[in-house]
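User: Before I run my own analysis I want an independent prediction to cross-check against. Here's the chain; please return only the structure tokens and, at the end, one sentence I can use as a sanity check.
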Amino acid sequence: MKSLNKTASRIFAKLITQMGQADYLKLDRGGSAIMPLSIEKLVHEVDFAGNNATIYSLSHYFEQNGDLVPDPDMTFAVIDQKKVSKNLLIIPLTFQNSIYYTEAIFLKADSWQIHPKQQADLADFANNWLKNIQWQQDL
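Assistant: Structure tokens:
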């Protein structure tokens, strides 16, 4: 299972910090040329392969024919390892946009299932996307 790199993890941690105690945050610091970023806390304290995790989504949306279309929308399991280190362990789970959807890690019959190649691809994408988000939202 591949987690986000240190740079992307620091950016993700900034986003969580900006949420505070809220379950949702919309950042729109990029002006009219940049899509706002939506951050949502989806599930609190879920057992993720023996670890206590919180599930978040990060999303950009555009409107088409009155519908909101994800471009992209990703979910992540965030495991707080502050007892062990200063970092969060952030693991990409799913990805979707208007054309494609994949569940690289998902819960099936009380057991976490993983597609290693797809999950590694999601982590690589998220590492780059979070650097773009940092620039777009002036983090």
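Sanity check: Helices lie at 6-19, 116-136.
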